[in-house]
């Protein structure tokens, strides 16, 4: 029974998992329009479903068509839960701009992706491109009011769309302003920065203002779409992608549609498209020359009024300053207008504690109002000094510095109450007296010696660093040379040890003589007194000198044989001794410091 | 022979110890007279500018700009001292060149992070920048540098030279005294002498390493400021949208990152990243 339930449970889990994750991968393409103008991009979106981590998309090149992948991807996931079964679909959209560079009909090949070793493709589609022959039917320009501005001012950016008035001579009808605007394709056009303004008009069921204007000999209706312009940088304004398309009428007809008789409709039209030209718009930064230290970006013509409340205070009490900056030029950007930096005004910060932070203001009509709280530092203060405000006047092209009027103030000392020694005696008043450190200001220059410094020449430093190691190397050289040429008796014995041993062997080749010669050799090498070593001591000395165990063994055996030969009459081959000597002599003996 | 060895020992140790002072002696022999004259001229122009500030601001500014130019000339001629960068910053700040002043103070602090005067005047320059953006925070490397700047660069240089050469002297003593000791059959104390020598060499090498570290950190400094009001954009071109609603004021400090033709990617103190035109970049690098 248990096994049946287990199987059922496993199958349910498996079904849920499979239901959740197994979906087919598909690729599709969305095309904004299959008809386009030459050099006008068409937006194409490739949608990839349920293929996370795919490679691509790829598309083959087409002669006369340019593909540009737009940055970023749009990704969204859709989850559905039906009776506990969860399904999930993930779609990634990759946008392209497909721009025909010549007129004609093009077959846009399939977009392909690679996923898990499979290649998935969209369907090819056709794109027809025609040359827009706008001619003099429509012009578009972007103008600015005023045309010359400074960063910090506000103005209006206008898109002026001039459409030639159409007259059907056969019907003797001239299209009015509203009819012409209705032929402008609002959805197929790109409006760039003017899009929000146009959307706002549309939401209010209005259309841009159109007014007749004679351009040359022809009459045009000029539609103006305006947007507020608050430049943040000098140079030409960025208006985004603006391209206007319309179906310009070529013929009208009058017909009966069943409801209205004599209804006027479009019998023929031709699509036209235009990109606006930007007329000379000059946005400049206020000049740096003559810029006052207190200038904080204000451009326009201002007055400053300051009010203080209360004006009768004790040292340390808060006084609320209300600063009102009124723009007389009508062009100042009040939203970005900043309060005068009160902390940086020495006349105020010397006598008052002033917050470092600038106050956020409130715009009222053409004025901006800031409030700040200051506190008198001592009772010697008798006025709120004039507050400076500087601005750049675009009309005169110069910086102006204005001041508010000083406001009289009455400051009384802060008092500390003390209990008098006698009842009924008024407690003395203690006036707080502190020294106030003035922050800011430049410190003095560095002295000439500080400025010149110590001329640490890199070559001198390198030489300085090399002197020590050079001396060390020289010392090692001396040591090696001395070792080689030393006249010290121990050194002489060491150097002549082998020769002495061989001479002894030549004169006395008996076992006793061999033993004496070999022990003498070891004593000479280590500087031990002559004839003082026994066989055992000699082997110990060899071990201490770091002689290899095999060599020690050979020496020990030889010495043992010599001892036996002394009594048993065994002879020793001196060539064997000479070979051992040569081997010992070639070895590096540890220096035991003459022990 | 023993006398000759002792003589060699004394001579070599004397050379080792004398090596410490070699750089000082060599430096003192350099004729600094002409340089001192140039510095005096720049200082005189600065003092003249400060004196005229109240009575004739235009003449004062011209004199301060002249002083700044003379300091810049000295810098270009290879006099890269924190004091010179600091004085240049002062001259520029009084001449209302706030971005230039901030970058000069950066150079002064890169060369000597312990220079409290440069830090103070940098804070003053920052106060004069219209819209304040928090300056970039110190990197981990800079904080490590601050630790070894308990000793000035020149102090560490001479301590390094002294430790290095003393270490060599100790090892010379070990090597040659051993020979002398062999002859007089006495070898006690050789081990600790050798250890002392090695420790001194390590100390010398470490202190020398901090000098190299200073040079590397200064050369790789990527602090810079905006030379004029500029828009921070999302990409390297005028066509990219602005990152901030307001333009960055002149004198805003930041770290530079990637450079592309005409554009540079920057990071403000609050971590905001974006691109500005390279023409608006002011950077006053030591060793350039």
The CATH topology annotation of the largest domain in chain B reads as Serine Threonine Protein Phosphatase 5, Tetratricopeptide repeat
Task: Supply Rg of chain A.
Answer: 52 Å
Shape of chain B: elongated
The major β-sheet of chain B equals: 5 strands, antiparallel
Poorly predicted runs of chain A: 12-22, 416-432
How much β-strand is present in the residues of chain A?
25-35%
Task: Please summarize the sheet with the most strands of chain A.
Answer: 5 strands, antiparallel
| Number of DSSP-assigned strands of chain A | 34
Strand composition percent of chain B:
5-15%
The number of helical elements of chain B comes to 10
CATH superfamily of the largest domain in chain B: Tetratricopeptide repeat domain
Rounded mean pLDDT of chain B is 83
How far apart lie the N and C ends of chain A? 94 Å
- Name the poorly predicted regions of chain B: 183-187
User: Which whole number gives the mean pLDDT of chain A?
Assistant: 80
Outline of chain A: elongated
- For the largest sheet of chain B, list the strands in their spatial order: 4-3-2-1-5
Task: Describe the overall structure.
The complex is a heterodimer of chains A (595) and B (288). Chain A is 25% helix and 35% strand. Chain A is of the alpha+beta class and 595 residues long. Chain A has four domains: 107 residues, Sandwich (Immunoglobulin-like), CATH 2.60.40; 146 residues, no CATH class; 119 residues, Sandwich (Immunoglobulin-like), CATH 2.60.40; 98 residues, no CATH class. In chain A, strand 31 and strand 32 form a beta hairpin. In chain A, helix 8 packs antiparallel against helix 12 and helix 9 runs parallel beside helix 10. The longest helix of chain A is centred in the last third of the chain and has 28 residues. Chain A is elongated. Chain B has 288 residues and is α+β, with helices and mostly antiparallel strands. Chain B folds into three domains: 95 residues, no CATH class; 97 residues, Serine Threonine Protein Phosphatase 5, Tetratricopeptide repeat (Alpha Horseshoe), CATH 1.25.40; 68 residues, SH3 type barrels. Chain B has a five-stranded antiparallel beta sheet with strand order 4-3-2-1-5. In chain B, helix 1 packs antiparallel against helix 9. Chain B is elongated and about 80 Å long. About 2% of the residues of chain B have low confidence. At the A-B interface, helix 5 and helix 6 of A face helix 1, helix 2, helix 3, helix 5 and helix 7 of B.
């Amino acid at each position: 029974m248990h096994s049946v339930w287990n199987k059922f449970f496993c199958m349910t889990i498996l079904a849920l998992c499979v239901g959740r994750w197994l979906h087919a991968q598909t690729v599709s393409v969305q095309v904004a329009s299959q008809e386009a103008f030459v050099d006008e991009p068409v937006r194409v979106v490739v949608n990839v479903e349920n293929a996370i981590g795919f490679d691509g998309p790829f598309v083959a090149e087409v002669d006369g068509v340019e593909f540009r992948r737009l940055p970023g991807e749009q990704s969204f996931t859709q989850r559905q839960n039906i009776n506990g079964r969860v399904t999930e679909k993930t779609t990634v959209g990759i946008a392209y701009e497909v721009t025909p560079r010549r007129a004609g009909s093009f077959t846009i090949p399939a977009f392909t992706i690679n996923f898990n070793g499979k290649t998935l493709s969209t369907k090819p589609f056709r794109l027809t491109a025609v040359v827009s022959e706008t001619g003099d039917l429509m012009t578009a320009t972007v103008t600015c009011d005023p045309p010359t501005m400074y960063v910090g001012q506000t103005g209006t950016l206008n898109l002026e769309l001039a459409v030639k008035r159409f007259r059907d001579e056969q019907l003797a009808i001239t299209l009015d302003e509203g009819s012409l605007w209705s032929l402008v394709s609002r959805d197929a056009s790109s409006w760039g920065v003017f899009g929000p303004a146009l959307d706002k008009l549309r939401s209010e069921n209005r259309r841009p203002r159109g007014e007749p204007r004679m351009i040359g000999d022809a009459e045009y209706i000029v539609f103006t779409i305006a947007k507020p312009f608050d430049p943040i940088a000098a140079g030409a304004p960025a208006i985004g992608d603006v391209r206007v398309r319309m179906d310009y009428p070529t013929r009208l007809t009058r017909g009966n549609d069943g409801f209205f008789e004599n209804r006027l409709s479009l019998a023929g039209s031709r699509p036209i498209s235009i990109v606006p030209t930007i007329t000379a718009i000059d946005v400049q930064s206020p000049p740096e020359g003559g810029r006052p230290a207190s200038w904080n970006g204000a451009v326009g013509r201002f007055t400053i009024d300051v009010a203080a409340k209360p004006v009768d205070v004790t040292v340390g009490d808060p006084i609320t300053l209300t600063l009102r900056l009124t723009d007389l030029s009508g062009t100042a950007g009040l939203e970005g207008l900043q309060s005068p930096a009160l902390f940086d005004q020495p006349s105020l910060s010397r006598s008052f504690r002033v917050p470092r932070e600038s106050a956020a203001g409130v715009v009222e009509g053409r004025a901006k109002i800031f409030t700040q709280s200051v506190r008198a530092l001592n009772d010697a203060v008798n006025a709120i000094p004039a507050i400076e405000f500087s601005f750049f006047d675009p009309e005169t092209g110069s910086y102006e510095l204005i001041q508010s009027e000083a406001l009289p103030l009455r400051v009384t000392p802060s008092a500390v109450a003390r209990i008098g020694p006698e009842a009924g005696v008024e407690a003395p008043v203690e006036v707080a007296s502190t020294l106030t450190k003035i922050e800011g200001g430049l410190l003095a220059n560095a002295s000439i010696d500080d400025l010149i410094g110590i001329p640490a020449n890199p070559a001198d430093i390198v030489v300085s660093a090399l002197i020590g190691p050079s001396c060390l190397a020289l010392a090692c050289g001396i040591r090696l040379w001395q070792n080689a040429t030393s006249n010290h008796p121990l050194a002489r014995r060491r150097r002549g040890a082998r020769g002495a041993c061989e001479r002894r062997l030549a004169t006395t080749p008996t076992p006793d003589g061999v033993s004496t010669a070999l022990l003498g050799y070891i004593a000479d090498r280590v500087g031990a007194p002559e004839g003082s070593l026994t066989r055992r001591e000699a082997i110990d000395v060899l071990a201490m000198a770091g002689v290899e165990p095999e060599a020690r063994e050979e020496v020990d055996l030889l010495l043992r044989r010599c001892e036996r030969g002394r009594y048993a009459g065994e002879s020793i081959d001196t060539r064997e001794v000479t070979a051992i000597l040569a081997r010992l002599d070639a070895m590096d003996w540890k220096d035991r410091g003459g022990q | 022979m023993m006398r000759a060895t002792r003589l060699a020992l004394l001579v070599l140790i004397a050379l080792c110890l004398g090596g410490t002072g070699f750089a000082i002696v060599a430096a003192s022999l350099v004729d600094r007279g002409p340089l001192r004259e140039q510095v005096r001229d720049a200082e005189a122009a600065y003092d003249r500018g400060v004196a005229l500030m109240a009575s004739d601001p235009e003449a004062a500014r011209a004199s301060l700009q002249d002083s700044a130019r003379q300091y810049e000339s000295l810098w270009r001629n290879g006099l890269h001292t924190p004091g010179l960068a600091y004085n240049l910053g002062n001259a520029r700040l009084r001449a209302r060149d706030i971005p230039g002043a901030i970058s000069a103070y950066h150079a002064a602090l890169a060369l000597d992070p312990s220079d409290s005067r440069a830090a103070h005047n940098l804070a003053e320059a920052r106060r004069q920048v219209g819209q304040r953006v928090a300056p970039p925070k110190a990197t981990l490397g800079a904080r490590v540098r601050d630790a070894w700047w308990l000793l000035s660069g020149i102090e560490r240089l001479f301590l390094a030279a002294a430790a290095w050469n003393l270490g060599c002297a100790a090892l010379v003593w070990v090597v040659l005294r051993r020979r002398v000791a062999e002859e007089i059959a006495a070898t006690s104390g050789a081990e600790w002498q050798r250890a002392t020598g090695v420790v001194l060499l390590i100390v010398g090498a470490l202190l020398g390493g901090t000098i190299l570290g200073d040079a590397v950190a200064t050369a790789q400094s990527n602090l810079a400021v905006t030379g004029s009001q500029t828009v921070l954009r999302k990409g390297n071109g005028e066509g990219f949208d602005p990152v901030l609603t307001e333009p960055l004021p002149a004198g805003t400090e930041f770290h530079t990152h990637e450079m592309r033709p005409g554009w540079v990617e920057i990071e403000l103190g609050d971590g905001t990243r974006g691109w500005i035109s390279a023409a608006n970049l002011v950077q006053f690098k030591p060793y350039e």
